[in-house]
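Team,

Forwarding the record for the chain on the shared tracking sheet. I've put the sequence and predicted structure together so nobody has to dig through attachments.
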Amino acid sequence: MKPVQGRVILLSLAVILSVILFIPSTPLFKHMPGWWKEYLPSKGITLGLDLQGRIHLVLEVESDRAVEIAIDRVANNMAELLTEKKVPVESIKRTSPIKITITLPSPEGKVAVLKLTDDQFPTLTANSPSDRVLVFSVKADEAERIKKQSVSQALETIRNRIDEFGVAEPLIQQQGLRQIVVQLPGVKDPGRAKALIKNTALLEFKMLDEDSPLAKDLPTRVPAGKEEEILKSFGPKVPPEDEILFERAVDKESGRVTKTPYLVKKRAVLTGDVLTDARVSIGEFQNAYVSINFDNTGAKLFERITAENVKKRMAIILDNTIYSAPVIQERIGGGHAQITGSFTTEEANDLAIVLRAGALPAPVKILQDLTVGPSLGQDSIAKGIRSTLVAGIVVVVFMIVYYRMSGAIADFALMLNLVCLLGALAGLNATLTLPGIAGIILTIGMGVDSNVLIFERIREELRTGKPVRPAVDAGYDKAFLTIVDSHVTTLITGFALFLFGTGPIKGFAVTLCLGIAINLFTALVGTKVIFDLRNRSGKIERLSI
């Protein structure tokens, strides 16, 4: 008698716990008292991408460009080192994706350059095609390391940006050697999310070359879209150490966009890798700007740069677009600066997000862009619920017609299975996808398989003339191993799908595995309890089966 009571208590606790876990997934949760939300589970089942609308992007990191960016950085560091050590050179520039060429004023300078570079740049190999030229090439294993690191860094940077953006349950993972899959459920502004992900966010501080005659010849302002014409017209006149970049301006009244060209030195005096924070602030004229803070190294550099360039203009550049080009009035200490421009509060907030998350190590391009609207997701949910109800009703009716009262007991176990399955999904904060709903429907069919095996065994025992209670016990005992074997083999398949499958396949595998495990409990414990309770009430001469 005690085993029956223990199993009844266990079943009751399972049902109560499942209901408590599932309530946060229902509209009823918002009406629950505060203590419930504070002390009891507040997270439920999360709808997957295919049920609440989504963005599905496949991005490719341009890892070859990452190598070029790394070589450019090395060339700048090399130029600074040789200048600091007072080694004369005519030019230092990257002449191919993996090569830096140094032109010397005389052959005698080779020894000094090679001695410095051997110590400071061990990942480069040098050769001399002529007396006054040295060519440094990045080693093959170093180039491969940079490529791999660029993908890993891009993955982490994108993840940080998405976390700052506030998307629940995103999927961000590497695919292949260079690709990154990004899935964002429930995003209301897909364009903004894509821009936030794709934006390289390379922040640079560069000085304007106001001494060049070309700077005075550039037009003050041009309409948006005319940038290529300016570059073609003035490009041949640009000095090798300079480049033309544009500042974007928007007229608040008319909304007209114009561009202001500036002649800017190519060499960045400061980059965004020394930032520690970026926040949106509102100016005295209610204009949004981004306030940035530097680390100790950046603060010292920024203070020195501003002290050396008083009354000169410094351009603040993000992804080759000038946001502002203020005149340095005095030395700026404290490690603080501002990025102003013609952007809204939302644009300033996005800019702050990408600056806090860091720049991508290389540009990324979108290979695949799929957007599923929430209306399609609601239709999928409605069809999934309808399919579940139809499947459940058909199974319930069949079991009652074929197995009579025993079939009704099996239907009770099936309902118990569904309640516990939904509670388990909610307790694990699982993401329910359309394939997951298919897994639930499959579980409904499999949920009665075990009872069918048990009932057929009971029928065989009754045909031999055994009384009801021994026949029921024998039916459960003889069907036990068969049921366990069939469930274990299916569980192995489910685990394989979960381990090696992607998003939707994982969703199917989760519901399938949970449904099978719970079915073992409800079939072998749930229905047996009811039979035992009936036998407890009195000796049963005939079993409706």
